[in-house]
Design goal:
- With about 325 residues, the protein is α/β, with parallel strands linked by helices.
- It folds into 2 domains: about 240 residues, Aminopeptidase (3-Layer(aba) Sandwich), CATH 3.40.630.10; about 70 residues, RNA polymerase II/Efflux pump adaptor protein, barrel-sandwich hybrid domain (OB fold (Dihydrolipoamide Acetyltransferase, E2P)), CATH 2.40.50.
- It is about 25% helix and about 25% strand.
- The chain is built from 7 helices and 14 strands.
- The strands form 2 sheets. Strands 1-3-2-4-7-5-6-8-14-13-10 form an 11-stranded mixed sheet, with helices on both faces. Strands 9-11-12 form a 3-stranded antiparallel sheet, with no helix packed on it.
- β2, α1 and β3 form a beta-alpha-beta unit.
- The N and C termini lie far apart (about 50 Å).
- The relative contact order is 0.15.
């Protein structure tokens, strides 16, 4: 029963003034590197190996306790979609949101630790350039990018919410999809919500779910974040220099159950302009419009839902 679960956060404050950071893990319950890394950092603090000297840090090792207890991605639904408080919670994730969203709003910075099903190198998902548009207005582009370079990973991806919104508009115009994936709010997760309340945020994809190096990547990113923002007693880390920056620019939906990929694609697989990615059920090829790479391919996607994303390299 979902009422058997409770929410738990651990907070430290330093003696000096500083920013307010929140670090979350297990937004998806089967992504265990976040809880492992966060608990390791907590142990460092408790044992005196690390000190919070400024600002405030809140650690949430397990954000979705129902999903985590069952070691599955979701409890009742995906917590990292349509994240917002609601007066009438209908599922467990609504209850999580009612606790989590006010907690996020009390902070300035969010590091949300995730992992992936595929064996991809670690990467970070970033917010958009500064803008005052209707999709994801943002004013902390420089701050977020500078911080990202200190996480210890070398690949960075942006453009999520604007590309998702493009897909929503296309589904609405075609009369396809369901009430969830035809609502642009369904693209809002932890980091998008954090930016909506004035903060900056990064999703760290620390590696494959069960890879032994993923908790280490997450642990180092947390320690680096604490040091970079002057919250801990460690020296600030140097920025990485050999980086790959990608911008999501297109989402392609599966239109029919018979739509199929030409091969078992994996995220970040390079694409050449004109390369055939898949075939529609009527034999029409789905072709890469330009050189770049494929992201988040889902061979099991249902018709009317996201099939894969396209990204291009940016400076």
């Amino acid at each position: 029963m979902s009422e058997h679960y409770q929410f738990h956060a651990v907070e430290y404050a330093g003696l000096k003034r500083g920013p307010r950071l929140i670090v979350t893990g297990a937004v998806h319950g089967n992504e265990v590197c976040g809880p492992i890394a966060i608990r390791r950092v907590l142990a460092d603090i408790e044992h005196g190996d690390l000190t919070i000297v400024a600002g405030q840090v809140t650690f949430v090792p397990v954000t979705n306790p129902l999903a985590h207890a069952h070691r599955r991605r979701n409890g009742d639904r995906n917590l990292n979609r349509n994240l917002s408080p609601t007066a009438e919670p209908k599922d467990f994730e609504d209850h999580v949101a009612n606790w989590l969203c006010p907690l996020l709003a009390r902070h300035d910075i969010l590091l949300d630790v995730h992992s992936t099903t595929a064996s991809n190198p670690a990467f970070a998902m970033l917010g958009p350039p500064d803008n005052d548009g209707p999709v994801e207005p943002f004013t902390q582009f420089d701050k977020e990018r500078a911080w990202a370079l200190r996480l210890g990973v070398h690949r960075f991806v942006d453009g999520w919410l604007s590309t998702y919104a493009t897909g929503v508009a296309r589904r609405r115009a075609a009369g396809h999809g369901n009430p969830l994936n035809t609502d642009s709010k369904y693209g809002v997760g932890t980091t998008e919500y954090m930016r909506s309340v004035g903060g900056c945020a990064i999703t760290l994809e620390a590696g494959q779910h069960d890879a032994p190096e993923s908790p280490e990547v997450a642990y180092r990113a947390i320690r680096n974040t604490l040091a970079y923002f002057g919250l801990s007693n460690e020296a600030p880390p140097m920025p990485v220099t050999d980086t790959e920056k990608l911008h999501l620019y297109e989402v392609i939906d599966k239109a029919h159950q018979g739509d199929a990929f030409t091969k078992a694609w994996a995220s970040f697989h390079p694409l050449q302009a004109g390369e055939v990615i898949g075939t529609r059920h009527d034999g029409t090829p789905v072709i890469a419009p330009e050189a770049g790479c494929i992201l988040f391919p889902d061979a099991k996607a249902q018709p009317g839902n996201e099939w894969f994303y396209l990204a291009r390299t940016v400076a």
